[in-house]
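Researcher: Re-running this chain for the archive, since the previous output was lost when a drive failed. Same request as before.
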Amino acid sequence: MPRGGGSGGRGHKSGHKGQKRHFTNPDELSAQQEKQERERQWRHQRGEIESDEESDEEKTGEGSGSESESSSEEEEGENQPAKAKGVEGLIEVENPNRVVQKAKKVTQLDTIGDVKPELSRREREEIEKQQAKAHYQKLHAAGKTDDARADLARLALIRKQREEAAKKRDEEKKAKEAQKTAKMDSVSQALGKKKT
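Model: Regenerated structure tokens:
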């Protein structure tokens, strides 16, 4: 058996068990409207409703008000501060989360655009890291850091070793050439003796 109701049809909403469906008839609706009208008149007699609210209610009730009249009343309502409803007029509470939109002048907009936006912590740290790296590389190139000094010392050692190796090669080369010339001399002397 499918879930969701007695008949099992899709989208069928069954009411509470054991209760009949209730439909309002037009007589009850007209009685309710008359009751609301009597309550409004009673409030007006007591002075709870001002004439502005009353005229608004009458217009909404009639549904046929000219647009020029309603627009002029809206303009008047915009100029006057909103009337507090119920207990709001007695208790003044300031909501810290409420943002009041203020009209900004063109001169204020220009100064607002000049201010740099706040960076997040990660962005700030990334920028600081890049600046520190650039500063370190500058000092390293100048030879002022410990690593740069160690690198320069190692390079000096390597240069010295290479110079010594080059001198040694030159000496060996000269020694070989001297040996070669000595052999040639000895060979030429030996040949020269034979010729004579």
